[in-house]
């Protein structure tokens, strides 16, 4: 006599394998995005600032960057950290008049 739970067990094993595959893809996608290195276009995309403003922040050494010769490079993870550090503290107790 065959096990009536065998089809259910096979489906659960298939779901587990698919879930593990999706998790692995998500983890690799996140690592690729945060480790991305690029030029001014990457900095503009991440910060949503104009090229002129980015160059100003670079010249003031306020924006994380690397420079080799005349070439500026930016790391996505460093730009995201820079943006997170710019959060203002929340005001407690509402507005003051």
TrEMBL record:
Stretches assigned to the Helix-turn-helix domain: 45-85
The organism's place on the tree of life at top rank: Bacteria
InterPro entries the UniProt entry points to: HTH_17
Protein name: Helix-turn-helix domain-containing protein
Organism expressing this protein natively: Spirosoma fluviale
